Amino acid sequence: MQDEINGENTDHGSPGERVLQFIERMRTLVERGKRDSNVTPADWNVLADLVETADFERIGPFHDAMNWDAYIAMLCGWVNATEGWEPVLKSLSEASDRVFAQCEEMITENGAVFPFYSLSMYEFNAAGKIHRIHVYMQQPQTVEES
C-alpha cells in the first residue's frame, strides 16, 4: 500500500523489517535448494515486492556488479549446489534510506560448517524498495600446508 502523502511503501514495515523479510525469504529458498536442488529464477519472485527489479544492482565483495537477472542466475546456481547456509544476524542499523545488516553466515561445505562474516548495505528508493545491495565479506584465511 502506498502512503498517499509521502509516496512510501507501507506494506512491509520499516526498511529494517523489509531487509529481515528479504533475508528470511532467501533462507527459505536456500533450504529448498539444499533439499531439492530445483530452485528456478521464477522462485525468486517471492522477493519482487521488496526489490525494485528494473533498477537493481548488487555490488559484491570483488567490485562485481550484477543487475537483477544476473543476481538471480548467480543465486540459483549457488542455492542448488549448497550444502547449507544459515544467516545469524548480529546487528541491524537503519540510516535514512539505508540499512546495514551484519551477519555471521554459517556455510556448510563438505559436511563441515564454517563462519563467513558479511556486512551488507541495502539502499532503498523513494518507493521503499531495495534497489542496491553492497556486500562486504570477511572470512578466515586458509593456510596451505607445505
Provide structural commentary.
The protein has helices at 15-36, 68-81, and strands at 57-59, 65-66, 85-95, 98-109, 112-124, 130-138. Strands 2-1-6-5-4-3 form a six-stranded mixed β-sheet. The radius of gyration is 16 Å and the shape is globular. The chain contains two helices and six strands. Helix 1 packs across helix 2. The chain is of the alpha+beta class.
Summarize this structure briefly.
The chain has 146 residues and is an alpha+beta fold. The chain has helices at residues 15-36, 68-81; strands spanning 57-59, 65-66, 85-95, 98-109, 112-124, 130-138.
Task: Summarize this structure as a short list of keywords or feature phrases.
disordered N terminus; 2 helices; 146 residues; single chain; alpha+beta; globular; 6-stranded mixed β-sheet; 6 strands
Number of strands: 6
SSE sequence, one letter per element: HEEHEEEE
Secondary structure class reads alpha+beta
Q: Span from first to last CA?
A: 60 Å
What's the arrangement of strands in the largest beta sheet? 2-1-6-5-4-3
**What is the helical fraction, as a range of percent?**
10-25%
Low-confidence stretches: 1-10
| Coarse morphology | globular
Number of helices: 2
